[in-house]
Amino acid sequence: MSNAMFCYQCQETVGNKGCTQVGVCGKKPETAALQDVLVYVTKGLALVATKLRALGKTVNHEIDRMVVGNLFCTITNANFDDDMIAERVRKTCAAKKALMAELASRDGLADAALWEADDKAAMLAKAATVGVLATSDDDVRSLRWLVTFGLKGMAAYAHHARELGYTDSAVDTWFYKGLTSLAQPYSVEEWLELILEFGRVNFQCMALLDQAHTETFGHPVPTRVNTDIQKGPFIVVTGHDLKDLRQLLKQTAGKGVNVYTHGEMLPAHGYPELKKYTHLVGHFGPAWQNQQTEFADLPAPVLFTTNCLMPPRPSYADRIYTTSVVGYEGIPHIPADENGHKDFTPLIQQALSLGGYETDQSRGGLNGGHMLTTGFARNAVLSQAPAILNAIKSGAIQHIFLVGGCDGAHPGRNYYTEFVKRTPMDSLVLTLACGKFRFNDLDLGEIHGIPRILDIGQCNDAYSAVQIALALAEAFDCSINDLPLTLVLSWYEQKAVCILLSLLALGVKNIYLGPTLPAFLSEPVVKMLVDAFGLQPTTHPQQDLDAILHRG
Question: What is the residue extent of each domain of the chain?
């Protein structure tokens, strides 16, 4: 049977090899094809812009915004709307054409820069020659797409920062360098050097987003969040975009509509400038991948702000709204005006019309807990640094585990629940991203008043986790690798990829990664990463714990 598509950018790709008929995420072959073409023309745009800048000419920053938005649009579970993606292809081709008009010659420009199309049929025809399988060499393809997927992940972080008015010229510049490098005939060693350079730039991008969030919303503070749902009208907000949440909170204030976070929006409760809204009352459901069950017959609208969208079922499709780069055919989209303002009136009116639940609803996490604690970002944790250091020196804390990353539906992901349950009572568990929903409702107790589970925040907050580790290393006058610290990471999509590359670039070794290794890494590339960084595939929770703690 011939391939209708080929995509292996997420952890749940079929057979850990690739989705060839339809995406496990729900992506159709046509959608996958259009996304491949969008990446291709974005490479072309980068080539033209780079050539212009080499000639000393200025390229409008709106081109930077377009590059970032295009890449973010193709991340897993973000956009399933063929028309929206095709329109991005058209606009990108038009932008390329306008920039090329400033060139005296097109000599030396690759096909990605020269090719253009207006109709969807031509785009779909082009896709067959520009997708993943267009590169025949397994190792080159592996490294090329490792960079591509890393760029997609970084685009998400750059997008969030840009929406809050924060940019970094070095980060913007590297999108062009990365995209234009993809066609280069690099050796494996040169690819590795490029990948580590990318990791360092992505860390800079994560620092930028941390600055954007903390300067806009304040430093998170530890906050208890209820998972039960109050009676009356409400709106559920999922994704990652704190700016969108703030706009919604402002527009719902005083209107008798409660707001609940969902998935990766949980850490919003820790930010002072968001938690001041008293109608931000709790958190709905566990991780994002449960939405098709959790949203069934939901008497309230749901706003999708970033990647987290699963194909909506008929039981709730009429209550879904998308915004930003998110899209799904037939689902209303809330655009931003020229000033970035979004009008959420349709959601508010629908929430009031539906009325919510008639009685309070008791809802727990995956393990039955009803209270979650978040807000242990770098400032909150480092404010307790003396207590943590003393506990380590006294032996009360013997080990620190960072257990986090992306969640998904793969059955092997119960590994992370079991791993955390089995961690010794004299250990701390730092966590972040949606992987924490496997265990964040567990009560593991405290060590000298310090909760054993410390939720640092979103995947967007990986910078906080690294800063905590660096501060501990400085306090003990050692490297991160010499600390009693082990990273046990789960991955699902491309933001996890770029975080992993940043950790490798920082020299962090012996990371445990699961529930499977990425399908897009060839065996020689995996060996290279294992040899260079001690990258460890997860096995069994107890086996891995014993190895980490040198038991048995």
Answer: 1-134, 223-354, 387-548
